[in-house]
Amino acid sequence: MPAELRKRKVAVLGARSVGKSSLIMQWAEGCFLDSYYPTIENSVSKSLNLKGVQYDCEVIDTAGQDEYSIFNSRHAVGIHGYVLVYSVASRTSFDMIQVLYDKIVDFCGVSQIPCVIVGSKVDLPARQVPTEEGQQLAKENSAAWIETSAKQNVNVGKVFELCLAQVDKQTSGKQTEAPAKGCTLM
Ligand SMILES: Nc1nc2c(ncn2[C@@H]2O[C@H](COP(=O)(O)OP(=O)(O)OP(=O)(O)O)[C@@H](O)[C@H]2O)c(=O)[nH]1
């Protein structure tokens, strides 16, 4: 019997240079680049099979945000789930996570969104954001949470597995079409 198919569109957001593109590239292509090229916008597709379900994923890599960035409706319309990335070596990027989360729920008119909060670059020695603070932020927003290194390929696959699980948890789990308008309602 063919596996059940679920189509999922995921947006990856966060401050500039936190490693969004690197995370996606490591997940999709299995490679890492030390050089930095600011993203305008990009999308990557990949299929994966989890517990007998086939997920066809489209992942949107967005340009780095700051608190003054205007929220782009393309990052909410038709999106099933979110990956919000900060660098554990940047307190400013961590502070951006709640700002971004609030912008998304405000735009969508919902109280929570299927989301995984990611503390990236754990291989760097100069940590500014303790593990517990990341976990606490996720708890306060009913989000999943994980720390990663795209450079050392630590927990990269788990990011997207957690995101897909959050989507299934917060929707019927059966939805295969992206929402036609706005976010998935909670
Ligand atoms: N040490 C380390 N460096 C990383 C890691 N991930 C990304 N980088 C580096 O951080 C810089 C920025 O990475 P990008 O993936 O381009 O970051 P981004 O968030 O997509 O950046 P914007 O496009 O500006 O939003 C690059 O020089 C990467 O090589 C990591 O896990 N560890």
TrEMBL record:
Superkingdom, taxonomy of origin: Eukaryota
GO annotation (BP), single: signal transduction
Reaction(s) catalysed (UniProt annotation): GTP + H2O = GDP + phosphate + H(+)
InterPro entries assigned to the protein according to its UniProt record, in alphabetical order: P-loop_NTPase, Small_GTP-bd, Small_GTPase, Small_GTPase_Ras-type
Keyword Transmembrane: no
Molecular function per GO: GTP binding; GTPase activity; metal ion binding
Membrane topology reported for the UniProt record: Lipid-anchor
PANTHER family, per database record: RAS, DI-RAS, AND RHEB FAMILY MEMBERS OF SMALL GTPASE SUPERFAMILY
Protein name, entry field: Rheb small monomeric GTPase RhbA
Organism: Cylindrobasidium torrendii FP15055 ss-10
